[in-house]
């Protein structure tokens, strides 16, 4: 075990998980090894530990690799999120069984029964050949295509689940950032950071000849854009789906063939989910994780893929809802203020190698300093 291993992570805990929660178990843990899953900068609100277990079952020696996820930095992270901590256990324990009953398969990790409700025990996707892409290099078209297909199937399935169990979907689909009833202290910090990001972007645009003409517009909207973004993330009267609220590169893993071509994706991290327009999650992904070539040249291809996959799955599940390509384009246009906000608020810090903790950022905000200044180095501004 390493120094970060919590006291509750012991043989008794692992026996419970591997025996499916049975009181009378034929599982006997021989040994287990604990290591960290992620490098700094790839996760902000949880610890993820990889646990390799050797155990005996019916006198047969078995090996199992698990990923254990639990909250960390609670006092700091709740300054930004007051609705984050009950969602993911409910997703795996309540929502996912209903979804799998409907569709049979979703691009998410398998979960194990945990003796501690707020601690998640998941299959180790690394053992299945999945790896995490480099958040700083961003994702090419093939990676984006796999994400769009997986998301379309995930979104369509949530429509079918909502028809049968609206209370489950709506209880976990509470927006962690833009909910109308988000604690004022949390909303004020998000608003302040969004404004700081936009003001920093405007300053850098002003000093770059290519973008000077946009600087004043960005600066003008910095103080008022928060309310518009909140409004755009509300549920609508056309199509609402359960979605990842923050689908950026570290919240998914990819599998590749022997030539290096991506063949599959798994969606991770359902601490932050939202029940609203599916386009909210798609634009977040595109403007935090897709590379420049995709955003400049191949968006319409991805939009067609999403619509075709979503509508086919909705038809398969006998849901009446549909999303036309024209409606998608219209909704994307309406989300333009959110795209600008994401580009200033999230993109600089999520794609740079330098890692700054949430606590450091909040302290700089409290001192009326701009943490985004550190992101706009020469390499970033090229």
UniProtKB/TrEMBL annotation:
Cross-referenced InterPro entries: CHK_kinase-like, EcKL, Kinase-like_dom_sf
Organism expressing this protein natively: Graphocephala atropunctata
SMART domains for the chain: CHK
PANTHER family to which the protein is assigned, alphabetical: CHK KINASE-LIKE DOMAIN-CONTAINING PROTEIN-RELATED, PROTEIN KINASE-LIKE DOMAIN-CONTAINING
Domain CHK kinase-like: 120-316
Name of the featured protein: CHK kinase-like domain-containing protein
């Amino acid at each position: 075990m390493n120094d970060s291993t919590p006291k509750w992570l012991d043989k008794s805990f692992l026996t419970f998980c591997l025996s499916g929660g049975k009181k009378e178990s034929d599982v006997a843990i021989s040994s287990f090894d604990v290591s960290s899953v992620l490098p700094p900068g790839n996760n902000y609100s949880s610890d993820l530990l990889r646990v390799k277990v050797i155990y005996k079952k019916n006198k047969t020696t078995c090996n199992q690799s698990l990923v254990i996820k639990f909250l960390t930095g609670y006092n700091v992270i709740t300054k930004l999120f007051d609705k984050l901590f009950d969602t993911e256990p409910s997703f795996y324990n309540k929502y996912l069984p209903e979804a799998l009953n409907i569709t049979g398969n979703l691009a998410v990790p398998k979960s194990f029964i945990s003796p501690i409700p707020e601690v998640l025990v998941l299959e180790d996707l690394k053992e299945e050949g999945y790896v995490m892409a480099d958040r700083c290099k961003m994702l090419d078209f093939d990676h984006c295509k796999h994400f769009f297909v997986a998301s379309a199937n995930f979104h369509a399935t949530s429509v079918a689940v909502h028809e049968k169990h609206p209370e489950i979907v709506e209880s976990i689909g509470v927006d962690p950032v833009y909910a109308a009833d988000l604690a004022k202290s949390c909303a004020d910090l998000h608003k302040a950071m969004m404004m700081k990001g936009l003001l920093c972007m405007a300053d850098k645009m002003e000093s770059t000849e290519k973008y000077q003409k946009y600087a004043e517009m960005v600066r003008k909207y910095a103080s008022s854009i928060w309310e518009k973004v909140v409004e755009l993330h509300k549920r609508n009267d056309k199509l609402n789906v359960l979605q990842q609220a923050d689908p950026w590169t570290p919240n998914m893993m990819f599998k590749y063939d022997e030539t290096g071509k991506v063949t599959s994706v798994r969606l991770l991290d359902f601490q932050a989910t939202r029940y609203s327009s599916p386009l909210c999650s798609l634009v977040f992904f595109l403007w935090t994780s897709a590379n420049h070539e995709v955003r400049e040249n191949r968006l319409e291809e991805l939009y067609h893929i999403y619509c075709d996959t979503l509508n086919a799955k909705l038809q398969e599940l006998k849901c009446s809802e549909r999303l036309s390509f024209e409606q998608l384009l219209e909704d994307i246009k309406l989300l333009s203020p959110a795209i600008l906000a994401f580009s200033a608020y999230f993109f600089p810090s999520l794609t740079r190698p330098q890692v700054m903790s949430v606590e450091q950022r909040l302290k700089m905000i409290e001192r009326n300093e701009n943490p985004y200044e550190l992101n706009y180095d020469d390499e970033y501004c090229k």
